[in-house]
Design goal:
about 120 residues, mainly alpha, 4 helices, elongated
């Protein structure tokens, strides 16, 4: 079972990277409030899921896989609103990067690692 410390740290970093993601999206034009809310909460939920997950895989793969899983809805949104291929790829890359960074910061900088199997 994940510790409360791990869940809190990962969720916090999810919020931080959600804000960063929103700011990056805003570089290409204004983002509606619904988009801002979706970006920030989606990334915060990614952080929460990283915090509660206890998959028995390496931290590196864990961050990448969770980042990809939680960016898939954003990829479909980018396709639906007819964004270009570069926007779709950027969405995937940021998901991978933010998932990896959340796991790295949580597990190693703040030393709240995933529980080990017994």
């Amino acid at each position: 079972m994940a510790s409360g410390k791990r869940v809190g740290i990962a969720t916090f970093w999810g919020l931080v990277f959600g804000v960063i993601s929103w700011l990056l999206c805003g570089l290409s034009g204004p983002v509606p409030w619904s988009g801002i809310l979706a970006i920030i909460t989606g990334t915060a939920v990614m952080g929460f899921a990283i915090g509660i997950s206890a998959w028995k895989i390496s931290w590196f793969l864990h961050g990448l896989i969770m980042g990809l899983i939680f960016r898939i809805p954003s990829v479909f949104t980018a396709i639906w609103v007819e964004k270009g291929l570069m926007d779709v790829l950027w969405t995937i890359v940021t998901g991978l990067a933010f998932g990896l960074l959340i796991e790295l910061l949580t597990s190693f900088v703040f030393k709240a690692r995933m529980p080990q199997s017994k």
